[in-house]
Amino acid sequence: xxxxxxxxxxxxxxxxxxxxxxxxxxxxxxxxxxxxxxxxxxxxxxxxxxxxxxxxxxxxxxxxxxxxxxxxxxxxxxxxxxxxxxxxxxxxxxxxxxxxxxxxxxxxxxxxxxxxxxxxxxxxxxxxxxxxxxxxxx
Amino acid sequence: xxxxxxxxxxxxxxxxxxxxxxxxxxxxxxxxxxxxxxxxxxxxxxxxxxxxxxxxxxxxxxxxxxxxxxxxxxxxxxxxxxxxxxxxxxxxxxxxxxxxxxxxxxxxxxxxxxxxxxxxxxxxxxxxxxxxxxxxxxxxxxxxxxxxxxxxxxxxxxxxxxxxxx
Lengths: 138, 166
Description:
By secondary structure, chain A is mainly α. Chain A has helices at 2-46, 51-65, 69-130. The model of chain A has no long low-confidence stretch (mean pLDDT 87). Chain B has one helix and eight strands, in the order H-E-E-E-E-E-E-E-E. In chain B, the strands form two sheets. A five-stranded mixed β-sheet of chain B has the order 2-8-7-4-5, with no helix packed on it. Chain B has a three-stranded antiparallel β-sheet with strand order 1-3-6, with no helix packed on it. Chain B starts with 5 loop residues before the first helix and ends in a 5-residue tail after the last strand. The relative contact order of chain B is 0.22. Chains A and B meet through helix 1, helix 2 and helix 3 of A and helix 1 and strand 5 of B.
């Protein structure tokens, strides 16, 4: 009698677990999307381009809303892996971006200076090229 | 060197300097931050919006969102039904309860069109009257870990009828 009660109790608990499991799982996917989104924003503020990861998260959220939990879970895993890679490479990416930006600014500032020193010679060279077939007559 | 007229050279140099500073200003200027939201019809285009709906029925609308806030955003659209007295403002959301939410995540300078099927059910006293379908735009505030009302909201007026009403 006692063992049958115990078995019944285990069966009820198992049934409750099976019914509640998808809801718990779906909530964890949603929480994970939010967690990854926060990491994306922090990484973006550091200067890393996170657009592909954000696009993946959007697709995951769409799949989640359509009840495609397996697809959503897979997309979340992809986004997480990509985000981990970007976080590892963030210092290098940020440094490269800063160097590229500095070079662009320096090049722009250098244009008037280069123009000031080089343009007279360029003009002279063009002047001579245009008149190289000219003949001097007395 | 004397072949190049000094005045002409000065003018050319001035043009180059101005063009350079203009380019620098364009590169370094702060970007204007804004979020664009537009309500579209069931075909996700402008015009021919539904004017009447049966009480208890559904209505399909689209919402176009464009993010220019300078960073990725997690957007939540809160759908409410209200009247002229319960419309949101630029600083406060509508006091009406949220009936349905739609969420999306948008990268900076990206856009998305959400297709929304929303239920329309009102109390009997509002049947035959014009009600507002309200769509409030909320975004997730990463710094405070909470949803924040953006002050952006859209609404569309419809007349509600009971089944069988001419």
